[in-house]
Design a protein that fits this description.
mainly alpha, Four Helix Bundle (Hemerythrin (Met), subunit A)
Amino acid sequence: MAHNYIREVPESDDHGRPELHIDAQGRPESHIDAQGRPEPHIDEQGRPEPPVAANERDTLLGYLEFQRATLEWKTRGLDAEELSLTTAASSMTLAGLLKHMAYVEDHWFSVFLLDLPKMAPWSEVNWNANPDWEWETAIHDSPNAVRELWRTSVARSRNALRDFLDAGVAEASSGDPLGALAKRSWPNGDRPSLRWILVHMIEEYARHNGHADLLREAVDGQTGE
């Protein structure tokens, strides 16, 4: 099934970091899932490593999960003041990144891929009056609230992708599941493929994780890619 790589973050230790199990070669240990396929190795930051020799679908999903986990790592353990810190001339914050990516997750996987209506809080916003609403309001949300909003959107995206594939829509693309078109179109009538959405989401996370690198280093000096 296409959702073998759609997985939750591992159990956490006493410090809020995912537990790691090291194998005989000193690498985080992989496990076998219910379908008999190896689950990804977990790195020292708790991120699932993308597969190195998988098919296109699993490679894209693996990289998306890695980028999601990178944003979680870069925002891990910070309080409201730290999540609201800016750097240089930018008004961007880590809280804003979390809330923005929550919006992006829902926009592409729920609204575009499945053609579902916008859900709260996005449906309650006057986007014409305030196109940067998620960025500007995030600093007024508690750390728990903004993290939970992002986690909920990620979980909803995983379910949306699973539903899209399981519904058999992907089978209509001549054996190319990633070529299946989203149910919603742009105003000109074009519809992005699932492949386009996955690549776009990887690009979106990777770009903003670069911002998160700089913001986290400004908060407490933490670095790492």
